[in-house]
């Protein structure tokens, strides 16, 4: 019993006692005309006020949960029958601060919730959907085992309405706290303790209809003070306070809270198949103890039903409508619309006409499409932003997609002027990490938003700049002319197709670009009709020709074979009794080469999932990723030659050439990572036991591994691959209008970062383990010829320290590379800091080659005629190696 109920009961009891102890009045006196009225018990001061008194003078917004507003006061009305009834609660951020992952127009998450009333207290409870059972007996056990979560709570603001049987709650009490967990996000970004300030927060907007109630909270976050910088530099860099706000101690966010009714009739469930890439609603079914695997995966998809089920081609009962926000620049609206509607081609193949529609929000509209009933595409910006994202809200009962808001950064508006590289990549922020953290506020279901984080827009925009640079310098293309503008529009369409695909329920497919042949890529008629990849869900590179080759289609223009297949599996209307067999037939096509599939984990996300199949990559093109890597280096070298030969013009951006060079290295870094996958690589196939023929894992062909290793050693690790004229480097100026203007351009440092990425891959624990273990996947006759860990280390060491054998001078760039190698060798020999060293064979091999290198350094140091710089470098390297080899080992 609540405190208010106990207090009321106590007061009534005291009143009854007092009345019993009062002497009764004479009967005559009691009936006389002048007799006083019987005394009433005093009112309970803690009891809620009558409903009518609370909303007197307020204006109602009727809806699922009616909203009452009076001045700055806002109440939500909850009908009695709405308590303990599930609905969907979602949160978006409409206004933000524009830096470090804190951007506007973003979906944050959703949960299935219900209102619960405890006396005069109302709770919004997130239901636990991770564990389920159809068995009545198991449901009670699950309720006891797995807790729900409290989203927010507050006291009732009124007594029950006598007729409507509803109660009011104060919206400010419910929605002005930190529901999305932004204090943690701010602390992660700035390492400062921000907290919501209720006194300066308010409900700024609301709307309601029969399906949804939406309220927008303007929440002020603040920190009492910004600490003084440390007197001594910290060993780990400390992030700066907010840079994009006038005062770093204060900032506002607008959170859009939507309360949406779940469909009365749940959608039909379609179970996922691992051979295709669909986002899923997943849970553990604990109602059947005969199942070895309790996990259930339901495809995320919109509810599409034919108006005429018997027609070969029919309009849907309810199409998927994307509202193009009025903040999309007018010049890009047609390209955005084209990207949306391109998906209708796939839906027509399965019998739907105009399943996907695009509508433009009027420029004078006074409504916001960030509620949970308008699928939308919104343009947003920030000081360091360059990504796009395609998240969605789902019905957790079935996986049905109910809403989607694509966030599209304005990087394309700046791409043609080459600002994307400087504003987005130049500051070195990790947007993927920031955004993945942003999605974690509501647990497992909302963490799925991080899977839908997408850097495709940033990558496309930055490579768009590379393409414009190269074409302008090679062919004289006007960077602000109609040809460049047409390419920009094509890139926008490409990225919108990709992001709309996410909101239709499709994951990335990073293997589809390798299913197009080099000959097809050079055939413009073929690429115009079929695109440059078999899926728009890949991170497809630009189809740039080498010098002297004819130009084909530069970027993706249409859906690929995989996209049609993914749509068919998720959305094809199938009679219930035939669904299992028909879905099995559709999925069985996975062995067709053009339908090859590899997701983010296959491509590599870091840690143990480093991506070991060289066919699943970002930013490659064609059926031979190794050949593309060689081509990419040639394209970069051509750009560097042309940039150095170009004469600057008066009035141009002083950082133009500098930015072009740095951005080209960023793109080359992706290529370097991709080609490094060949060494110790495994080809992975998504087989279903007893259904799909073939091996699940197969080592990359030995010849390909050695070819990749040779290209790395003679190309990416060679100083000759990176030639820049001293007069060019000396001419690269800084932006003297900025406080943080940077330092002079250093090609050795830039090359060292690129080469370090290659060494990180080839000298990692995962690569060592695969090289040692790959023999177990090969027949006996092939094991002796396989690439060994010793061969890889010997090849790297020989290429990196080639001067030790010849007695040649070691220049600045080579000294940097050799230091990077020794750093990683040191990690390999330190059991306490690197997991690789816990693998005995890898540790022994690293120690063996370190000993060999020490001997080579000692011999080289004795050779006459070397410069002081080279002698000092050799002495320092030898001292480091000797210290590492003499270090005491703790053996267990």
TrEMBL record:
The keyword NADP does not apply. InterPro entries: DUF5117 (IPR033413), DUF5118 (IPR033428), EcxA_zinc-bd (IPR032534), MetalloPept_cat_dom_sf (IPR024079), Zn_MMP-like_bac (IPR034032). The keyword Cell wall biogenesis/degradation does not apply. Gene3D superfamilies: Collagenase (Catalytic Domain). Residues 106-307 form the DUF5117 domain. Residues 48-94 form the DUF5118 domain. Residues 482-805 form the EcxA zinc-binding domain. Keywords: Signal. Residues 1-20 form the signal peptide. This is Metallopeptidase.
């Amino acid at each position: 019993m609540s405190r208010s109920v106990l207090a009321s009961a106590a007061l009534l009891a005291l009143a009854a006692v007092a009345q019993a102890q009062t002497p009764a009045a004479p009967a005559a006196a009691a009936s006389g005309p002048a007799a006083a009225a019987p005394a009433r018990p005093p009112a309970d001061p803690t009891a809620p006020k009558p409903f009518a008194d609370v909303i007197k003078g307020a204006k109602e917004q009727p809806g699922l949960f009616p909203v009452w507003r009076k001045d700055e006061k806002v109440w939500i009305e909850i009908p009695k029958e709405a308590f303990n009834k599930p609905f969907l609660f979602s949160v978006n951020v409409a206004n933000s601060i524009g830096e470090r992952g804190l951007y506007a127009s973003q979906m944050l998450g959703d949960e299935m919730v219900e209102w619960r009333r405890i006396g005069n207290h109302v709770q919004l409870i997130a239901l636990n959907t991770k564990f389920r059972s159809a068995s009545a007996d198991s449901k009670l056990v699950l309720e006891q085992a797995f807790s729900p979560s409290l989203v927010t709570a507050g006291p009732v603001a009124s007594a029950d309405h006598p007729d409507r049987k509803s109660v009011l709650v104060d919206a400010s009490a419910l929605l002005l706290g930190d529901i999305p967990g932004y204090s943690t996000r701010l602390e992660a970004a700035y390492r400062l303790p921000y907290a919501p300030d209720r006194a300066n927060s308010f409900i700024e907007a609301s709307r309601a209809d029969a399906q949804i109630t939406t309220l927008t909270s303007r929440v002020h976050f603040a920190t009492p003070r910004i600490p003084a910088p440390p007197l001594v530099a910290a060993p780990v860099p400390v992030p700066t306070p907010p840079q994009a706000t006038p005062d770093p101690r204060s900032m506002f966010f607008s959170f859009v809270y939507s309360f949406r009714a779940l469909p009365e009739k749940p959608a039909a469930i379609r179970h996922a198949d691992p051979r295709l890439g669909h986002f899923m609603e997943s849970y553990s079914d604990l109602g059947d103890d005969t199942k070895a695997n309790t996990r259930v995966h339901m495809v995320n998809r919109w509810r599409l039903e034919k108006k005429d089920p018997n027609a070969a081609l029919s309009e849907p009962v309810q199409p998927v409508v994307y509202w193009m926000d009025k903040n999309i620049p007018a010049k890009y609206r047609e390209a955005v619309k084209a990207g949306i509607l391109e998906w209708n081609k796939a839906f027509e193949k399965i019998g739907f006409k105009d399943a996907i529609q695009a509508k433009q929000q009027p420029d004078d509209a006074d409504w916001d499409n960030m509620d949970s009933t308008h699928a939308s595409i919104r343009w947003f910006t920030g000081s360091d932003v360059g990504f796009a994202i395609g998240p969605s809200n789902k019905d957790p009962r079935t996986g049905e997609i109910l809403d989607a808001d694509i966030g599209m950064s304005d990087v394309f508006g700046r791409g043609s002027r080459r600002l994307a590289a400087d504003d987005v990549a130049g500051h070195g922020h990790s947007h993927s990490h920031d955004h993945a953290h942003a999605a974690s506020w509501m647990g497992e279901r909302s963490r799925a938003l991080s899977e839908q984080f997408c850097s495709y827009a940033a990558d496309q925009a930055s490579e768009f700049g590379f393409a414009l640079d190269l074409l302008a310098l090679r062919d004289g293309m006007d960077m602000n002319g109609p040809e460049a503008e047409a390419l920009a529009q094509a890139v926008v369409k490409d990225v919108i197709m990709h992001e709309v695909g996410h909101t239709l329920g499709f994951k990335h497919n990073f293997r589809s670009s390798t299913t197009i042949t080099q000959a097809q890529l050079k055939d413009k008629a073929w690429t115009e009709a079929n695109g440059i990849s078999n899926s728009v869900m890949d991170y497809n590179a630009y189809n740039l020709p080498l010098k002297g080759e004819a130009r084909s289609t530069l970027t993706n223009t249409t859906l690929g074979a995989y996209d049609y297949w993914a749509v068919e599996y998720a959305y094809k209307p199938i009679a219930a009794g035939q669904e299992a067999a028909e879905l099995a037939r559709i999925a069985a096509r996975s062995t067709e080469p053009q339908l090859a599939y590899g997701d983010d984990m296959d491509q590599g996300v870091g840690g143990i999932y480093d991506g070991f199949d060289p066919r699943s990559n970002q930013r490659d093109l064609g059926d031979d990723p190794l050949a593309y890597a060689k081509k990419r280096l040639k394209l970069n070298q051509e750009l560097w030659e042309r940039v150095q030969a170009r004469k600057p013009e008066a009035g141009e951006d002083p950082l133009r050439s500098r930015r072009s060079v740095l951005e080209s290295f960023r793109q080359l870094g992706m290529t370097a990572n991709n080609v490094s996958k060949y060494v110790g690589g495994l080809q992975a196939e998504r087989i279903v036991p007893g259904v799909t023929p073939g091996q699940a894992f197969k080592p990359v062909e030995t010849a390909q591994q050695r070819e990749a290793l040779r290209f790395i050693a003679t190309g990416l690790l060679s100083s000759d691959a990176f030639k820049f004229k001293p007069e060019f480097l000396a001419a690269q100026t800084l932006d003297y209008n900025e406080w943080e203007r940077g330092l002079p351009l250093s090609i050795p440092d830039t090359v060292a970062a690129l080469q370090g990425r290659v060494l990180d891959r080839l000298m990692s624990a995962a690569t060592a383990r695969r090289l040692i273990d790959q023999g177990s996947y090969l027949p006996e006759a092939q094991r002796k010829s396989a690439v060994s860990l010793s061969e890889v280390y010997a090849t790297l060491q020989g290429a990196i320290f080639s001067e030790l054998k010849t007695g040649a001078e070691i220049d600045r760039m080579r000294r940097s590379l050799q230091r990077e190698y020794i750093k990683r060798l040191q990690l390999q020999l330190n059991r306490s800091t690197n997991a690789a060293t816990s693998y005995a064979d890898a540790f022994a091999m690293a120690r063996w080659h370190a000993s060999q290198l020490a001997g080579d350094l000692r011999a080289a140091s004795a050779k006459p005629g070397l410069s002081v710089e080279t002698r000092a470098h050799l002495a320092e390297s030898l001292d480091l190696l000797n210290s590492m080899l003499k270090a005491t080992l703790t053996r267990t």
